[in-house]
Amino acid sequence: MISADDLRLTFGKGTPLENPALRGMSLTVNQGEFVTVIGSNGAGKSTFLNALAGEVMVDSGQIVVDNQDVTRLPTYKRASRVARVFQDPLAGTCENLSIEENLALAIKRGQRRGLSTAVKKQYLGQFRESLSSLKLGLENRLGDKMGLLSGGQRQAVSLLMASLTPSSILLLDEHTAALDPKTGAFVLELTEKIIEEQKLTALMVTHSMKQALDVGDRTVMLHQGQVVFDIAGKEREGLEVKDLLGLFEKQRGLEVDDDSLLLG
Amino acid sequence: MLSEIAFYGALETGLIYGLVAFGIYISFRVLDFPDLTVDGSFPLGAAVSAVLIIHGWNPWIATGAAVLAGMAAGSVTALLNVKLKILNLLASILTMIALYSVNLRVMGRPNVALLSEQTVLTPWYDLGLAYHQVPVVLFLIVVLVALFLLWRFMKSETGLAMRATGANPRMARAQGIATGGMIVLGVALSNGLVGLAGALFAQSQGAADVTMGVGVIVIGLASLIGGEALITPNTVIRALLACVVGAIIYRLAIAFALNADVLGLQAQDLNLITAVLVTLAIVLPGVRNSVVSKFTRKKA
Ligand SMILES: Nc1ncnc2c1ncn2[C@@H]1O[C@H](COP(=O)(O)OP(=O)(O)OP(=O)(O)O)[C@@H](O)[C@H]1O
Ligand SMILES: [Mg+2]
């Protein structure tokens, strides 16, 4: 379980570019929930995920993961509980390390690292098995440099890396956005499969309202650094994109900037 | 042609610069941390070992102390960067400058002679090898041991974490790697190797001198870049081999250049030649790589 309580964060405080990115963001994600997050450009979605991961420190508020207050912990101390896949396929892996070395880094996420060989023989079976579930033929390319892989392949491996060891929450920030539609659909399907099979708790940012309703079991919309609505269960079933837009307008009495939300 | 003595002399210094190149490989390549501390940690290693030896210490223990001194110097640079957020290049320049004073303090004078002292080489002269071959044999063993240990380290969990830190720090943090700690460890290790090189150099040359560090960074870089042009560094072991091969070939090339009378070059021209070679390596296409791009202006 992860809960964020009244998070506030202003970039460039005291400068003319002062920008309040989080303005009292509160959200609790329960064990096993798969939450999709939508919101227009600059709504604070990435900032929120970065705050949960520890990449940015909030000015105030509290972040609790599995009953531990992690608000002031740096990223690397949260890594045993927080797994991530980035939007940029280049960001989640090391291109000049081999596939097996990348996986070996991930299998130790948040654990002590010693002087024993990183790519242990006993890992290889597990690596091959997980890679073969991707059906990309990567199980025969363990020694290949990550940089040789396509964006979609790299994103699939990033996802695998994030799910190699247990986490309290998996953060996905538009992780299919940089891929072509077909590859994006493949990675999304893979995401659903992994989350379901491993019963992961996940928070997925997406720009597509349709996707936000199609996958997961709860949807929240952020606007100006706050949650403007949060729907799940019966209320969410059968909901369509136009209903979401209506909901947003009703909640805020605002016109939604259609350009920034892909209706597709 | 090169005399036998000059040839072995070039091998001997080449092997020592192989250790320097290992250090530069760790900082520039593995960590992506342009570190100029080596110009100070090389004479620091020389100074510490020389002073301890003339005070009657066992030369191997004195050499070990030189390694520790180098590591301490590297840690200072890394901490200036990690804790005080000083730009890495500038942090290393600050340490390098400070070390000039430290080295004078350590020695108490600008140079310390070791001519009649016991050094790590002394026992090896009794083995029946030709006099000028002794340092080559011993240093080759040291270099091979260092190469093996570094190779194993880079393949270890911690070594892999260090490589990830340099290649993709954001990903490394997300994997739970304390990137700041890795930078301190790596830069310390790098300068420890350079301290070792300085200590061996002082013992084989029979003196430590406060100015002996000038240009070490450029020679080390020349060795690294040259080696990588010959041996594509696509694995750790090849990258490490490239360091040694590059350093030896570089010293041999210098020895040939100095030996060829027609060129009219003298020993004092060495730094100029090195600077010209490194410049050529940077400018010539095909040798361009990440070390190089750090010293050229990036197009926006
Ligand atoms: N490092 C930063 N420094 C200054 N301002 C920032 C920084 N990161 C984000 N911001 C600002 O904070 C606000 C929220 O940005 P954020 O990236 O969280 O939005 P987002 O919802 O992820 O948008 P998008 O849909 O475009 O990805 C924006 O106004 C952005 O300009
Ligand atoms: Mg974003």
Topology diagram in text:
The complex is a heterodimer of chains A (about 260) and B (about 300).
Chain A: E1 2-11, E2 19-29, E3 34-38, H1 45-53, E4 60-65, E5 68-69, H2 75-78, E6 82-85, H3 99-107, H4 121-132, H5 151-162, E7 169-173, H6 181-197, E8 202-205, H7 209-214, E9 218-223, E10 226-232, H8 233-236, H9 241-252
Parallel strand pairs in A: 3-8, 3-9, 6-7, 7-8
Antiparallel strand pairs in A: 1-2, 1-4, 4-5, 9-10
Chain B: H1 4-30, H2 38-54, H3 59-82, H4 88-107, E1 111-113, H5 134-155, H6 157-167, H7 169-174, H8 179-205, E2 207-209, H9 216-230, H10 236-259, H11 270-283, H12 290-293
Antiparallel strand pairs in B: 1-2
* Cα shape of chain A: globular
Report the mean per-residue pLDDT of chain B as an integer: 91
* Helix percent band of chain A: 25-40%
Main sheet record of chain B = 2 strands, antiparallel
How many structurally independent domains of chain B?
Answer: 1
**CATH structural class of chain B:** Mainly Alpha
- Name the poorly predicted regions of chain A: none
H/E element order of chain A: EEEHEEHEHHHEHEHEEHH
What name is given to the CATH topology of chain B? ABC transporter involved in vitamin B12 uptake, BtuC
* Number of DSSP-assigned strands of chain A: 10
Number of helices of chain B: 12
Structural class of chain A: alpha/beta
Sheet with the most strands of chain A? 6 strands, mixed
Indicate the CATH architecture of chain B: Orthogonal Bundle
Strand content of chain A: 15-25%
User: What is the terminal-to-terminal distance of chain B?
Assistant: 49 Å
Q: Assign the CATH class of chain A.
A: Alpha Beta
The set of bound ligands, ions and cofactors reads: adenosine-5'-triphosphate, magnesium ion
The residue ranges of chain B in which pLDDT falls below 50 over 5 or more consecutive positions are none
Based on DSSP secondary structure assignment, what is the total number of beta strands of chain B?
A: 2
SSE string of chain B, helices as H and strands as E: HHHHEHHHHEHHHH
